[in-house]
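Regression test attached.
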Amino acid sequence: MSNDIIVKAVDVTKHFGNFLALDKVNLEVTRGEVSCIIGPSGSGKSTLLRCINLLERLDGGAIWVNNELVGYRREGDRLHEISDVEISQQRRRIGMVFQRFNLFPHMTALENIIEGPVQVLGEPARQARERAETLLERVGLADKKDHYPSELSGGQQQRVAIARAMGMQPDLILFDEPTSALDPELVSEVLDVMRDLASSGMTMIVVTHEMGFARNVANTVTFMEAGKVIETGLASEVLSTPKSARTAEFIKAVQS
Amino acid sequence: MNATTIRTTGDIGKYEIAHLTLVPKRHIGRTVAAAVVLLLFAALVRAFSVGQIEWSYVRDFLFAPTIIAGLGNTLLMTVAAMTLGIVLGVVIAIMRISGNPVLSSIAVGYVWVFRGAPALLQLMLWFNLALIFPTMGIPGLFEFRTVDIMTPFVSAMLGLGISQGAYTSEVVRSGLLSVDSGQYEAARSIGMTHMKMLRRIVLPQAMRVMIPPIGNEVIGMVKLTSLASVIQYSEILHNAQIIYFANTRVLELLLVASFWYLFVVSILSVGQHYIERYFGRGIKSIRSSV
Ligand SMILES: Nc1ncnc2c1ncn2[C@@H]1O[C@H](COP(=O)(O)OP(=O)(O)OP(=O)(O)O)[C@@H](O)[C@H]1O
Ligand SMILES: [Mg+2]
């Protein structure tokens, strides 16, 4: 396996009861790549992201992040399920941005960003604070640092959430429909921040319905349906000349 | 007047009302109610003044050293029992939602047993523990006589604190459940361990929901400590009783004790307001947005 591969999912399978949410899904993401996942509702996009971040356990297959097997430790011929503490250690290197922001409501914008570095990484408070201020500046919210989430618009909250994920200095950030809960006029301010992040070389897996973003920013696009990967490839190819008829139909539907 | 007449008359003069005199709405019901209450209150005051209460006793004993010492013990017991209750409540609630079947069964059993028996009875059980276990300890290592350990203070603290823990754990649990699942996921996504997530993210938010009922429970506990008088713990009611056994001024001393209970509860109510405001930070209050 090449060192440039940051995420490798092999035959990932996940059931909820009898329902098959992921059916032998394969995915490969290289360092610095922006990989978009598209597909209809219920196709398993969120579930795949949650498996990468260990918010769900796999039933079959395996995922490597940074050449490290997610959820297990290999010793010779044995695979040991790792402890909760080890799971939390693996998660530190994977950022996640949620559809509904999920900022901590009892903390200001700045405190939201500092929380992880100080409490989890043990960074000195001062240093974390300075870095958080730089991050807030980068997402255009330097003047909002002492505001609580309830005092921010949806777009501003999502930008703080992105800054919070960046604050952990992860190898990879997962975005689960980051603009779906936003009013239309606020979508672009969040996409701008994500575009800036992409151009700085951050590896990103983005579940989105924003075809414009996928076309302009993504390197690769994966189309999922009913728990399966139907098609994956270079963004330009999948979006303009899809091989599968289902992909073409879906793209046409979301664009109109 | 209805909309059609307005349109058809077209009389502009009708719509000029600035020169008219405004007669405020009369609240007759309120006035009557206030009069009735004042009347009843006056009757009550009269009853107390002609009744056989020696108010000078009330005044003299209000700050009597025995009463003040009793008040101190009441407060001490409130703090001790409530602290034990809250600690147990948090631990039991976390065990209950832990997903570990052993821990959550223990939690369910705890609530079942200690919520099921009256606090007074539990207190007496602890106090009389020596009847079944004359000594306690680890054989060969250390051993105590149970009566030395189960002092009135310890028995009352255990009895009140442990039964309180059963109630408080339900309050804590509803607080934990009130926190959005997205908060748990966000905390995990930045790599927090389970305990750190509870401490830093979940409990502070649950506090907002927990504080009003816990405030109630603290206030309830102030009064519940009077049960400890039964096992000779010298809290305020017990001390008031000691005095009136000697001077037979029963009602006067009961009034002294009531005054102090009311006084403490009033102060706690004010404190509760400030604590609620602190844990409500970052959350728009329903009142301020109206
Ligand atoms: N915890 C769960 N328990 C049971 N079923 C679940 C659970 N989570 C997801 N599912 C089911 O798995 C399927 C895939 O869900 P998932 O959230 O991954 O879809 P999605 O592609 O993200 O859809 P959307 O675009 O609506 O977010 C859905 O049918 C959903 O109902
Ligand atoms: Mg989803």
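Expected vs. actual: identical. The radius of gyration of chain A is 18 Å.
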